[in-house]
Amino acid sequence: MSNRLEELLATPLEDNIFIYTERDVILYALGVGVGADPMDEAQLRFVYEKNLLPLPTLPVVLGYTRIKDLPLGINYLKTVHGEQGIVLHKLPPVAGTTVTKSRIAGVQDKGADKGATIILRREVFDQANNDHIATIDMTLFCRGDGGIGSSIAEPVVPVVIPERDADVIVDIPTLPQAALIYRLSGDVNPLHAEPAVAKAAGFERPILHGLATYGIVGYAVTKSVCDGDPARIRSLKGRFSAPVFPGERIQVSLWREGKGVFIRAAVPERNAVVFNNGFAELVALQN
Fold this sequence. Notes:
This protein is of the alpha+beta class. It folds into 2 domains: about 140 residues, Roll (Thiol Ester Dehydrase, Chain A); about 120 residues, Roll (Thiol Ester Dehydrase, Chain A), CATH 3.10.129. Helices cover about 15% and strands about 30% of the residues. It has a 10-stranded antiparallel β-sheet. The longest helix is centred in the last third of the chain and has 16 residues.
């Protein structure tokens, strides 16, 4: 990482122009497990070109750039994807060209021996009409890069899940080959494909991408509290708290509260919470 906070915040990040088709939209949905029931026409809307709909989390892969390909100067081997958020200004079309503008939105220094968090912000636009599609925040925990100073006065306070039983619980199965499918949407990190790389990183086998888990959570919210309408999700954020292994069942718990739902996801068989402190803001139905 740069030795000066000002230099890091001013790091130039190139615009990304990305051309995609209906096949990419369908492939992304398949990668997060949609289409498991071939008789469910509600799922078919996301994986079949007839009346195709994009998932609300699709913008995270439109012009996706791997963290290690960004000129941040951080120790990528000690960097963890900690949090993810999206504000969906409008659903993207099911085919088109996007322009993504990226910048470092904030740094929270935890001390020279404790690391720092970096918020990477991506603004996604439709090139055809310059419509603003999404604002995407990725929070990176850089364990080897503290001591630079902070641009954020106070750390972001995590969402607190209500202390009561969930209002809705959704079980989403994942395929053993889920990571191999999801990586075709842009994140080709071998951690999610090669057993030897996974073991070297401390895992018994390849793990599912965090953003795939994020997409599964977004689909669970769309399916269970939005009547299958992805346009009803205004925003979705949360923390990654443990990895998922492809083939595991993810149980998504939702608490209705005000204008949205609180979210926690777990793998019950391992008693592991994999996504926590989550919240989705919903758009009210029009009368």
